[in-house]
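Fold this complex.
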Amino acid sequence: MTTRRQFLILAGGAAVSGAVEAQLPPNIEALRKAALAEAVRKVTGDAQVRRGKVKLDLPPLIDNGNTVPLSVDVESPMTSADHVRAIHVFTEKNPQPYVISAHLGPRAGRARISTRARIADTGTVLAIAQMSDGSFWSDSVNVVVTLSACLEDGLI
Amino acid sequence: MARVVVNLPQRARRGEIIEIRTLAGHGMETGFRRTQLGELIPRDIITRFTCSYNGVEVFRAELHPAMAANPLIAFSTVATESGTLEFRWTGDNGFSATHSASITVD
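Structure:
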């Protein structure tokens, strides 16, 4: 049996959690863009990132942001002289830009990984591959998310 | 011990590229969700996954809260010799899971 007092405490708590969400800074877009740029810089260390060689594959329209299948394919002979060292995946709209960093080498045989990610909102997903010669290549995909991850319960 | 599933061929020809699919049972709590009373639920995720082939590391990944629950990781490796592949997942709150699979290469 819920007393009036307990009910009021619960209702107050719900209001507080709603207020917390509303307190997101107004320039959140810019902040997240900056966080993404910073994360990319941490990986590439100011090296130039070129488009191409990388193929990021994920559905353009996502019903459920909690499990988004994605795969990254990189064109590379995967020999000990010329191979992919690492594949990094980032998202623009999540609270943190990082998704996964995979480290592979010539023994992988093929530069391809697939996984499942959480994506919070409609925006860009970015994949960057680091080659053994130190160059970086990227691909990005714009996705539309109808049910966002991170907001499923308690907040709405 | 968490439940993990690893799928790879039991036999392969020498030099063949084999695909390995791994799945670990884990809720991957992001650390950004709140309870109905507004308290933050602390982060609890798998942070690292490694695969070694006869003791030599062939694949490694760092995972972040943006990985879906029950993280699936699929990758490939060249079947070089018969032996064992060791898979290891480690994460927050001392989480650790291991799995090993043997492969025959001819």
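The mean pLDDT of chain B is 93.
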